[in-house]
Design a protein that fits this description.
Oligomer: single chain
Largest sheet: 5 strands, antiparallel
Shape: extended
Helix content: 25-40%
Bound molecules: 2-acetamido-2-deoxy-beta-D-glucopyranose
């Protein structure tokens, strides 16, 4: 492609020369002569400045020597003289000499300053001259090319006019057909390529994937990140990955959460989290930072503290790497459902629960519930992706989050209603700022917002060509490690983990797993934590039932009591969307 483009360019250039060859030749000659003269001037100029600079340098050195000697001679000479033969020198002479010397010295100093600034000026001028010389020699290169083309033309000129005219036409035709050909080829290639991808009918690679970026909890500076994704529109899906920098979970990938569900009030209650949200320009990452009580929040916390979660390889760390994967709308097939934005409001019980029908009659390939909240001045909008569980509750706790789940036909969305139950806890739809690196969210109105639901039919996202597993279900939840998939690419593919209720009001509904143990007691609490590796293995930390922990946990104030549930009768579900190579 590049070669043919270049050919087109050259041919059209030659055509242009054929038309006005004589004028062009003259102009080139004149320009080259002018450049030659300029070059000579510059070179003379250059020499002049250099010799002047050397002279000035010498002058400065001389001045310095003179100055040193004078001072030495006058001061010391006079002192010695006035000491040794006071009578021979009268005061008058002494004073006059001193005055002269001072005047001279002042003069020398001024000269020196001038020399210095002149020197600087010279250096700059020389640099400018260098640049100019380079540009002229670039131009000369172009002239040489031109000359080559001209001599090509001279050959044609020897032939008769008609022949010349024919050649010109041939050139023009050639240029045009070459251009048409390349256009056709581009369209053909595009069509073929697009068809290929449409037939493939899967999720494409994320438009934006960041590097691994170091973050630290309890660190003002490294505890928050703004990562530009460059989409210029709201992403359809964001996956935030968290990788330990050391320890027994090195090489395993945890996930960011999208609500702040704990605070820093209790000394012994370690909580965790990497919380993410975004807008049409950036992904924002925040981590725990003590606000007014205890620095117990970590970026990574599997919940070993107080035996809160069962599992192996427990870890609590202040440091980790994060990577964000951002899928733009063009990376997805058209969603089967892209709902309007519905209101959520912690102050209004009728806006604390929603049930939407997607009606696919099968578990979708992907559901994304996006919640947006606006700054108090209305200028900023942030998007959160919600969570799959409500955590614990107590007096004065700052908590919240948009809890959601889906089954074969419905999507359910809960937020806590403010006045229900504990009046002294502080509820919001995105969670509390207490104990978090809060700066980026300070001006956001977290009491209300709107959500929308994106749903994709699984046959739209899952490759029918590749014979790989998309969904695995495991009923035996009493184990800490599971291997549902084969090798995959955590950098471009999307692994999701859910807990599916086997009984109760939400039977059959799938609640997203948690990336961190956020709960701070004392009360019932929820959330199954998971981490995965590129071999398709999953590590699981589930709430300890013997201390009131539940895999399914939608506490009563959520949804103002609609379909609230605590249950440990649940299965694990994981889905893996492998992206294709089309983009
Ligand atoms: C000045 O006099 C002192 C003492 O007599 C002597 O050490 C010194 O070298 C003299 N300096 C000059 C420059 O003659
Ligand atoms: C020389 O200078 C000193 C100190 O400034 C001064 O006291 C003295 O009167 C001056 N002598 C004459 C003759 O000006
Ligand atoms: C065909 O299109 C694809 C996708 O845009 C591109 O990557 C590829 O380089 C094109 N092939 C040629 C030969 O131009
Ligand atoms: C899902 O999408 C596929 C492909 O577009 C279509 O054939 C199928 O009917 C859809 N299924 C549902 C339940 O809408
Ligand atoms: C889970 O719930 C299902 C449906 O109600 C029931 O059949 C099953 O026995 C329950 N399992 C346990 C372990 O309670």
């Amino acid at each position: 492609m590049m070669e043919s483009l270049r050919l087109i360019f050259m041919l059209s250039f030659v055509t242009f020369l054929v038309k006005g060859d004589m004028d062009v030749a003259k102009t080139i000659g004149r320009l080259q002569l002018a450049h030659e003269l300029m070059r000579r001037d510059i070179s003379n100029f250059d020499k002049l400045w250099i010799s002047l600079m050397i002279k000035l340098d010498n002058l400065e050195t001389e001045l310095e020597i003179i100055e040193k000697n004078k001072v030495y001679n006058i001061v010391n000479g006079n002192t010695n003289a006035s000491l040794s033969s006071h009578e021979k020198l009268n005061d008058n002479l002494h004073n006059t000499t001193m005055a002269t010397v001072h005047l001279l010295l002042k003069g020398f100093k001024d000269e020196k300053l001038k020399v210095k600034s002149l020197n600087k000026l010279l250096q700059n001028s020389l640099r400018d001259i260098e640049g100019l010389t380079k540009r002229i020699s670039d131009h000369d290169g172009q002239f040489t090319d031109l000359r080559a083309h001209m001599s090509l033309l001279d050959e044609f000129k020897d032939k008769d006019e008609q022949f010349n005219e024919n050649i010109r036409k041939d050139f023009a035709d050639l240029v045009k057909s070459n251009y048409d050909l390349s256009q056709d080829f581009t369209i053909l290639n595009k069509t073929l390529y697009a068809n290929n991808c449409e037939n493939e009918n899967t999720l494409r690679k994320p438009t934006f994937v960041s590097e691994w970026i170091l973050i630290r909890s309890q660190d003002q500076k490294f505890g928050q990140k703004t990562i530009p994704h460059g989409l210029g529109e709201i992403p359809y899906k964001v996956d935030v990955q968290v990788r330990p920098t050391f320890g027994s979970n090195s090489g395993w990938i945890f996930s960011g959460d999208s609500a702040m569900q704990s605070d820093d009030d209790l000394k012994d209650e370690v909580y965790g989290g990497v919380v993410y949200f975004y807008d049409s320009s950036n992904i924002y990452i925040i981590t725990p930072l003590k606000t007014n009580n205890f620095a117990v929040g970590r970026v990574l916390n599997t919940g070993e503290n107080k035996n809160r979660r069962l599992g192996n390889n427990h870890q609590a760390s202040n440091e980790a790497y994060v990577r964000v994967k951002v899928w733009s709308p063009v990376d997805f097939p058209k969603p089967d459902i892209e709902s309007e934005w519905f209101p959520l409001d912690t102050d209004n019980p009728s806006r604390a629960y929603h049930e939407l029908t997607h009606g696919l009659n099968e578990y979708p390939g992907l559901v994304n519930v996006q919640t947006r909240s606006t700054s108090k001045n209305g200028e900023n909008v942030v998007i959160f992706e919600g969570v799959g569980t409500s955590t614990s509750y107590r007096e004065w706790l700052n908590y919240g989050g948009v809890v959601h789940a889906f089954d074969k036909n419905y999507v359910r969305v809960w937020v806590a209603h403010h006045d229900a139950y504990l009046s002294n806890s502080i509820i919001s739809i995105l969670g509390g700022l207490d104990g978090w690196n809060r700066q980026l969210l300070n001006d956001i109105d977290r009491s209300k917002g709107q959500f929308r639901v994106l749903v994709w039919n699984r046959s739209k996202l899952v490759s029918s060509r590749r014979n790989s597993k998309f969904e695995q279900i495991e009923e035996n939840v009493n184990f800490p490690e599971w291997s549902p998939f084969d090798k995959f690419s955590p950098e471009t593919d999307l692994l999701s983990f859910y807990v599916q209720a086997n009984d109760g009001l939400n039977k059959g509904f799938r609640f997203p797993g948690s990336g961190n143990s956020q709960s701070t007691g004392p009360s019932s609490f929820g959330g199954v934590m998971y981490a995965y590796n590129s071999n398709g293995d999953i590590r699981i930390w589930r709430p300890n039932p013997s201390i009131d922990g539940y895999m399914i946990h939608v506490y009563e104030p959520f949804g103002n009591g609609n379909n609230h549930q605590r249950s440990n009768n649940a299965s694990f579900v994981s889905t893996l969307l492998r992206t294709n190579e089309c983009n």
